Amino acid sequence: MDDIQEKRSPRRWTAILPVVIVALLVGAFAKRLMDVEGGQDPQQVQSVLLDTPVPDIDLPPLPDRGAGLTTADLKRDVSLVNVWGSWCVACLSEHPLLMDVAEQNDIPLHGIAWRDEPSASVRWLARNGDPYDLIGQDPVSEAAIAFGVTGAPETFVVDADGIIRYKHIGPITPDAWSNTIAPLVEQLRQ
Amino acid sequence: MKPTGIICGLLFASLLAIAAHAVEPDEMLEDPALEERARVISQDLRCVVCQNETIDESNATLAQDMRRLVRQRILAGDSNEAVLAYMVDRYGDFVLLRPRFTSQTLLLWVGPFLLLVGGAFAAARYIKRPVVTDLSDLSDEELVEVNVLMKETDGSDSQ
To answer: Which of residues 70-89 of B touch A (CB under 8 A)?
Structure first.
């Protein structure tokens, strides 16, 4: 028996190979799962438009609401651009936070009413409150595609030169606001 | 027409239905050649909402708007590559269903071939491994046992 053991020994490392492979796979899957838990969803597409100028837009206003939203409006001050729609359930859950933000800060908050009936947008704002400074209508996703939007809500932080500095996908959580977006706005304003 | 002919016809028609696309008649360009180009481009672009469909086959409203934009760019005189580049500028390489060959996608493209070569190498080594024929280490009893076993297999082979 001893002889046999000795003969096999040079190749014994291959015996643990399957275990090593399984361990590596488990590790890789576990990391992915924890990334998703920690908010890094691989389905969310990182914007390639970060640190590039805002696209050229000239969106018409909602009825009875003054001016629409143009590129020039985004080059005056550090501002937030929120893509939303009355059809969007997640936007409704985000809305109270936007109302708070508009009330407690003097950051211009602009809205892009994405693929929405103007009357539906107006009714939605009347019912839930209107936190926006300027709103532009985007009935055929012209601005949405130009901004690389994949779903609503999405929020962009634009600096005073009209450069896109940050994109938040999905509803802004209180955490995301106080830990990421608010500090970034503060920093860009200096 | 015989009933079987009708049934075959219906079956064939149902196959065509599977291949139906999301493009609505009012979206199509009048020039068939340009429309064909739009279809080819649309089949390379990912619907960013549904993610595993092309914009050509997706019913998502954003896909519909992207199809319209593709046709606008074609009418504006863009080449197929220019239209794809237009979308990549806004959505990144992610929007292409056929990933480009770049340093970032190198492993994606080359990986399968590396695995194939590695597997072939391992298989060749396994097949070529030396067969033990040296019986000098065996004790007399073991040799007797080996002989018995060899005879048994010879017997079963000849049956």
So the answer is: 88-89
